[in-house]
């Protein structure tokens, strides 16, 4: 069984050595592929391919890399893979659900608190020697209403943290049930419109697919309070980003936190978020897809990728994408 680990995001040399000691043939690369051609060259001899979310496994890659039998993305999301075509070719597709749920949930609140307390501006002025207390009176989050869109692994943890901070939680999910609401200590789930109208904070935790693309469009964004803070650590395509930028410019929204730039580091400045200039706005925090990146999360990721590898080799693949 030939395995190609196309980058060093999930697995490190120590993991590769452990695979080799078990008699597994491994090709290992210590950088993300620069382009599709380089990705293909790394996968063309492999039966199992391991890769990061920025690597796009489309029809062309699958056709050229004809030896592939199993695709393992070192991420929870799998929109980087043409899953339907892979299935037609008899290729198993595995992801790593839940490994970064706590990491991302905690990062959401780092953004919320930073925006409420103007941390970005205060730090910049302090560095310049300016101590202007009267310019930056912050806002406490206790007692405020927090709207969580999506109640999966990450959304449920966001809900629990918000509850622990004394916030009133509103949650919306595509699959509401009384049992799930009870599990999360919620009276019930609410409609998306109700959540957007009533929330002081809104955080998005849903996958990108045909039904969620531009789910939060101009009409939905207009429902929000002008003082609301909007956080998105999912995909930017879920939101009408052009209109969100206009809302920031015209103070139709209190603040924005985005960790949605999932693009090869080389092409960072080609990202729509970069080109819109949102990251230059004083009431916006934009980070480079870093919410997941913690020591503990990486340990969980490596463990799950290895389980995916051994599961497939043993003929019992796990974490198959449905």
* Widest beta sheet: strand line-up: 7-6-8-9-10-11
Give the DSSP E fraction (strand runs of 2 or more residues): 5-15%
Q: Any idea of the CATH topology of the largest domain?
A: Rossmann fold
CATH homologous superfamily caption of the largest domain = NAD(P)-binding Rossmann-like Domain
Low-confidence stretches: none
Total tally of structural domains: 2
Q: Strands, helices and their partners?
A:
Elements: E1 2-5, H1 13-21, E2 25-28, H2 36-43, E3 48-51, H3 59-64, E4 70-73, H4 83-88, E5 92-94, H5 101-116, H6 119-127, E6 145-149, H7 153-164, E7 168-172, H8 178-183, H9 192-198, E8 201-204, H10 218-221, E9 229-232, H11 241-249, E10 255-258, H12 272-276, E11 284-286, H13 295-313
Parallel strand pairs: 1-2, 1-3, 3-4, 4-5, 6-7, 6-8, 8-9, 9-10, 10-11
Helix pairs in contact: 5-7
Write up what this structure looks like.
- There is one protein chain.
- The chain contains 13 helices and eleven strands.
- It is of the alpha/beta class and 322 residues long.
- It folds into two domains: 2-99 and 295-313, Rossmann fold (3-Layer(aba) Sandwich), CATH 3.40.50.720; 101-286, 3-Layer(aba) Sandwich (Rossmann fold), CATH 3.40.50.
- The strands form two sheets. The chain has a six-stranded parallel sheet with strand order 7-6-8-9-10-11, with helices on both faces. It has a five-stranded parallel sheet with strand order 2-1-3-4-5.
- α3 links the parallel β3 (48-51) and β4 (70-73).
- α5 crosses α7.
- The longest helix is centred in the C-terminal third of the chain and has 19 residues, at 295-313.
């Amino acid at each position: 069984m030939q395995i190609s680990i196309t980058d060093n995001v999930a697995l490190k040399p120590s993991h590769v050595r452990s695979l080799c000691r078990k008699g597994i043939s491994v090709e290992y690369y210590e950088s993300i592929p620069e382009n599709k051609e380089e990705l293909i060259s790394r996968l063309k001899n492999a039966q199992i391919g391991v890769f990061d979310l920025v690597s796009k496994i489309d029809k062309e890659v699958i056709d050229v890399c004809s030896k592939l039998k199993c695709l393992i993305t070192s991420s929870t999301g799998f929109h980087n893979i043409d899953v339907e075509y892979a299935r037609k070719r008899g290729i198993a597709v595995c992801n790593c659900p839940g490994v970064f749920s706590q990491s991302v949930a905690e990062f959401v609140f780092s953004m919320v608190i930073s925006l409420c307390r103007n941390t970005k501006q205060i730090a910049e002025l302090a560095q310049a020697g300016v101590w202007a207390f009267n310019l930056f009176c912050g806002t406490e989050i206790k007692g405020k209403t927090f709207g969580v869109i999506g109640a999966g692994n990450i959304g449920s943890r966001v809900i629990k943290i918000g509850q622990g901070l004394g916030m009133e939680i509103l949650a919306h999910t595509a699959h509401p049930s009384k049992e799930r609401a009870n599990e999360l200590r919620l009276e019930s789930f609410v409609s998306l419109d109700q959540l957007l109208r009533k929330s002081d904070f809104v955080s998005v935790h849903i996958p990108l697919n045909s039904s969620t693309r531009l789910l939060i469009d101009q009409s939905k964004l207009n429902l929000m309070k002008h003082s609301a803070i909007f956080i998105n650590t999912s995909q930017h395509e879920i939101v009408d980003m052009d209109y969100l930028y206009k809302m920031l410019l015209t103070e139709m929204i209190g603040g924005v936190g985005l960790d949605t730039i999932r693009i090869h580091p080389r092409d960072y400045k080609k990202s729509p978020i970069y080109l819109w200039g949102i990251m230059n706005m004083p009431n916006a925090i934009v980070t480079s897809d870093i919410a997941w990146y913690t020591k503990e999360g990486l340990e969980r990721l490596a463990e799950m990728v290895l389980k995916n590898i051994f599961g497939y080799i043993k003929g019992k693949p796990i974490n198959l994408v449905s």
